[in-house]
Amino acid sequence: MPESMTAYRALGPGRAPELVSIPRPAPGPGQVLLRVGGAGVCGTDLEVVRTGVGGLPFTKPFTLGHENAGWVEDLGAGVEDLQPGQAVVVSAIQFCGACDHCAAGHENHCRSLSCRGLAEDGGFAPYMVADRRQLVELATLQPKHAAPLADAGLSAYHAVSNAVGHADRAETIALIGVGGLGGFAVQYAKALTQAQVIAVDRSEQRLRIARDLGADHALDADEHWGKRVTELTRGRGVDAVVDFVGSDETLRTAVGNTRGRGAVVVCGRGGGVLPFSRALVEPGVVVMSSRGGTMRDLEHVVRMAESGVARVEIEEFALNDIPKAIGLLREGGLTGRAVVTSPA
């Protein structure tokens, strides 16, 4: 193995990430060195590139890339249940494994939660290190197809599961914003329920893809989409909503179209604020935010992909083509998830 490698790193506040040479990492106790087979490019990476870390905490330079999968290259002390060459996917959530939330299986609520690729070194490099407890083994799925599941798939599954679990029934589900996460959510909603799935987006291309993935209805997110939801549900409102946008408009429309004892789960980071009053929210409606997912969720999304229940469409890029991938993501020019699959 080479002693050094090229990595795409955030170097400081106000500075755009760059490709730089750094030492190859070594696994510590309880850790695994991975040869990266796929690292997904996500909207959060776009935010870091645009703002130079932006509002993220910055204490030291780090390698981007939080959707990662690859092959075991070396084992740290105490790791005895994996073998070199084994394919694994890495949870985007970095958790302690010891706090009360982790002990209860809610790792995405860890009291010392962090994220590789957004604070610690991630996978936009030939090699990366991850804690053993963050890994899920792959049976048939190639790492490049598993990588988007580590965050986009994981977050979508957790959000849909919460929405379905907190609504008293799930005959109709609305998904607002059916891009990267929303596309996964369409598939999970169809797999987990018998519900009629309503996809809402401003992009006709995304709506076409949502229909192809199984959405029963696809609505343009213009000023009338809330009225059309009311018509589709014959005035009753939807049972559950997952909002992958999170703007003032989508939050208000989501809550306003959810029937009593339904559920609204907010996954989007659009900065919206939801005024709360009894006149706005039907009695019994549950409104919650959602972040990432659990290791149990990650296991589920991997097995769903391996069984063919959920599709993972990707577009491959080399490490030195990350700026190109980010540009296409910014412009809406991708039809699948962008995945970095080879070094520069």
TrEMBL record:
Ranges in a coiled coil: none
Needed co-factor(s): Zn(2+)
Enzyme class, spelled out: oxidoreductase
Chemical reaction(s) catalysed: a secondary alcohol + NAD(+) = a ketone + NADH + H(+); a primary alcohol + NAD(+) = an aldehyde + NADH + H(+)
CDD domains registered for this protein in UniProt: arabinose_DH_like
Enoyl reductase (ER) domain location: 14-340
Lineage: superkingdom: Bacteria
Key words, A-Z: Metal-binding, Oxidoreductase, Zinc
EC number(s) stated in the UniProt entry for this protein: 1.1.1.1
InterPro entries: ADH-like_C, ADH-like_N, ADH_Zn_CS, ER, GroES-like_sf, NAD(P)-bd_dom_sf
MF terms in GO: alcohol dehydrogenase (NAD+) activity; zinc ion binding
SUPFAM superfamilies: GroES-like, NAD(P)-binding Rossmann-fold domains
Similarity annotation: Belongs to the zinc-containing alcohol dehydrogenase family.
PANTHER family: ALCOHOL DEHYDROGENASE 1-RELATED (PTHR42940), VACUOLAR PROTEIN SORTING-ASSOCIATED PROTEIN 11 (PTHR42940:SF8)
Protein name per UniProt: alcohol dehydrogenase
Source organism (scientific name): Saccharopolyspora erythraea (strain ATCC 11635 / DSM 40517 / JCM 4748 / NBRC 13426 / NCIMB 8594 / NRRL 2338)
